[in-house]
Hints:
By secondary structure, this protein is mainly α. The protein has a single domain, classed as Serine Threonine Protein Phosphatase 5, Tetratricopeptide repeat (Alpha Horseshoe), CATH 1.25.40. It contains six helices and no strands. It has helices spanning 2-34, 38-51, 56-68, 72-85, 90-103, 105-115. The N and C termini lie far apart (80 Å).
Amino acid sequence: MRVPAVLLLLTTLATGQSGDTVAAIAAKGERLVEAGRLTEAQELYKKALRSFPGNPDLYYELGMVYFRQENWAEAIKAYKNSIHRNPHDADTLFYLAQAYFLSTQPILRSARSMEST
């Protein structure tokens, strides 16, 4: 009986440590974004994803950096990775839709200018 309890305790501790580490990374990333250091935040999140490749929050935050940079294609990729891991997250779905919409704006402007000629 002691072995399963020990395994459960170790699993719980390990999960808590991962969450704390991801939370600390996200907090550091937010500070970088607030300071306008988007490239540094982007690199921080990419590096963190090598350690925590399945974390939807890190993909979401990376997507937010790309969104602020107006890099719609990369934002869409990051949001899709987040949604794949957490399909019911409303914020990610909202920003994914926004990124898709905003990525079409140059095409729409070009089409409108062609109509007026």
